Amino acid sequence: MNRPQFIERMIEIIKRMPGVGPKMAERLSYYILKMSENEVNGLVNSILKARQIMKICSICYNLSEHDPCYICSDPARDRDIVCIVETPQDLIAVSKVKDYKGLYFVLGGALSPLDAAGPDDIRIDSLIKRLESDNISEVIIATDTDSKGEITAVYLGELIKKLGIKVTRIGYGLPIGGDIEYADEVTISRAIAGRKEM
Amino acid sequence: MNRPQFIERMIEIIKRMPGVGPKMAERLSYYILKMSENEVNGLVNSILKARQIMKICSICYNLSEHDPCYICSDPARDRDIVCIVETPQDLIAVSKVKDYKGLYFVLGGALSPLDAAGPDDIRIDSLIKRLESDNISEVIIATDTDSKGEITAVYLGELIKKLGIKVTRIGYGLPIGGDIEYADEVTISRAIAGRKEM
């Protein structure tokens, strides 16, 4: 005897999400079935509204309600320093650090020779174009410190140095093999303070 | 610099789900923001449709597209034996066992003195009414084997024996402290085969 089709379908879709196994998908589905009308509407509307409002910043590729985003359009920020991150989540993690006042660039991933993810799969062309046209004096590479992030950092370091721009790699304080997104503010703050020229 | 409001709202709602921590909620939210239009519609529609279609069986309290549910309305099942479970998920787990052909009753939880969840918080009244009116020869109590499930089993065992009905507790094979929902089919099958009269 199997589960009713309408529950199975929901589990099927939720199971595809990152970090959600079959049992977790089942739990979440039954939880959603037990939620009040109000709560379900809140959930569904927050999803639909977020998708509707969301824009991708044409300068840094951050997610925002506006284009340019709230960071790129903030006149108080240093416009000659750019921090490169892999994802919008990483950008949020770094942006919690009060001592960094520069701009950002979201790569949209990392190079990964094993998964055949090459330079065309992330936003390297857009990055280089931006660095060539804007007046940038320093680029901080804050990709993850796992192997993909490191490969990406080395690759970008070489490219950016050729443009005559100072390149630093986020360094001190970040545990090796770590994911920037999960680092706490103090660690990120120390990593930025201890950055080294590449 | 904080996260845009529309993302924050989504994280806030998803964070309330069982087993979902703040980081997981963040991951899922960004994943949903990156999903294709088609995928998001699939997700939202599966939630709304499931909620719309879903009925609670007035006999056993299982979730189903129909009332009575697909199990209670199945003429091939033994109508004189009832298996009591805590949740619809537990029912699905037990229903995968081919050698059990009886009916079910979903309690909707377990007794929990510590959380002040007493007999009125689960469907004990409805259960007793059903057992009194239907012609039931045996009740198998398949509540979880954690302390709440055990307390509930003992409590129900006493009540049901007074009705002159044979009561058995699912037994052999189930690890102590376990959650029925997570047990595999073989374990559940053995537990049913090795059930003991209470």
> What helical percentage do the residues of chain A reach?
40-55%
Compute the separation of the termini of chain A in Å.
61 Å
CATH class value of the largest domain in chain A: Alpha Beta
Averaged pLDDT of chain A: 89
Biggest sheet details of chain A: 5 strands, mixed
SSE pattern of chain A? HHHEEEHEHEHEHE
What is the fold named in CATH at topology level of the largest domain in chain A? Dna Topoisomerase Vi A Subunit, Chain: A, domain 2
Strand order of the largest sheet of chain A: 4-3-5-6-7
In terms of per-residue confidence, which ranges of chain A show pLDDT below 50 for 5 or more consecutive residues?
none
As a whole number of angstroms, the C-alpha radius of gyration of chain A is 20 Å
Coarse structural class of chain A: alpha/beta
The overall number of domains of chain A is 2
Task: Give me the count of strands of chain A.
Answer: 7
Quaternary state of this entry equals homodimer
Major protein interface: A-B, 50 and 50 residues
Counted by DSSP, the helix tally of chain A is 7
Architecture of the largest domain in chain A, according to CATH?
3-Layer(aba) Sandwich
Q: Tell me the strand percentage band of chain A.
A: 5-15%
- What's the shape of chain A? elongated
